[in-house]
Amino acid sequence: MSRPVVGIIGAGPAGLAAAVALKAKGLPFEIVDAGDRVGGIWDINRAETPMYDAAHFISSRTLSGFRDFPMPRDYPDYPRHDQVLRYIQSYADHHELTPHVRVRTRVETADVCADGTGWDVRFTSGERRHWSALVVATGTTWEPNRPHVAGQFDGEQIHSFAFRSADIFRGKRVLIVGGGNSGVDIACEAARHADRAFISLRRGYYFVPKYVFGKPADVFAHDGPRLPWRLEELVFGFLMNRVLVGDLTNYGLPRPDHPILRSHPILNTQILHHLGHGDLEYRPDVKELRERSVRFADGRDEEVDLIVWATGYQRRFPFLKETGGEHKLDLYLELFHRVHSTLFFMGLFETDGAAYELVGLQADAVARYLAGRNDAPDVVARFDHVRATARPNLRGGRPYLDTLRHAYYVQSTVYARALRNACQLLELKNRP
What structural domains does the chain harbor? Predict the structure, then answer.
């Protein structure tokens, strides 16, 4: 008899990594994706992507590739979005996955089968499929989060999700709200192209240079000595505050209200260049919208033509009732659903390092688990007890900021170790 088929939703990096691992274990799989081709959000031409013309990787080529498929040596240190897309497509071709991806296929619903044998999946076309297990790899940046702000604005508003080109800034007074990596990138584009540009930040942040002493920042950190996190925080804080960047209040920015390494790194110091040249101006949190102007928390008003809300994303899975509308899913290792043993969420985490090696480890853990259900049920049974009850600290004890974007945050080296431990637990040699 043919072995049951595992369904993978999403043909971006995480979904492809899952397919590679399942293929290595001889487990049949299907990949579906709503887009026109392999690549996920890195395909700037698809409707559901936050990609924009000036987007580059924020982790370096050296550390960002899949374990078995490094990025090309002729790529720059920080590849542009189209180069990343070609790399992902090359990865799929290398593993002979591309012909097996069903594109332009959107999942409408995915329900647990009544007899417990897997998942009943219905596509928007009306077609139905039965999958023995479900790997959700849809990405996390397609459901914009828009904060509620008092008042009414009669100018133009978009979320950063809809931003593609700086051409929309020409001849306008532009306000960027939000200080994540995309928000700061877009603010720099506004500084170069708008008549006047503002960035509104709720709190003070650290802005990390992409190069430290001539090396990409992540390579510099990776090559350095392993330090206890509190000592690492002190050392890196000293470098940032006294050597590499200096006092951020000199640029008119607020002093960060948290130690460095307690929030997701913003790898962009171009913003400091634009602030220092007056092409970009800092404003505090938005308090009220007033038709064609914006009032800020310090009482100042600014006339604005366009607001770009770079305020992050909700993690939602509307096709899946099992998510239950929770603020945060209760997952073991941010991967295994604790109740439904055949439901997995890949790439849901955020981290302080490159993600592709981590999704590769996630994929290995999922493939070992599903293979073990057939070949080593005793090993899987012991793992299931851990899956249901264990709550390891995946942050290495670091008290990250309590914000929406940090809800699924993990410290990269700690998380990699935890995933490797999970893979070891699922080794067949662990059978009694």
Answer: 6-143+313-430 (3.50.50.60), 150-309 (3.50.50.60)
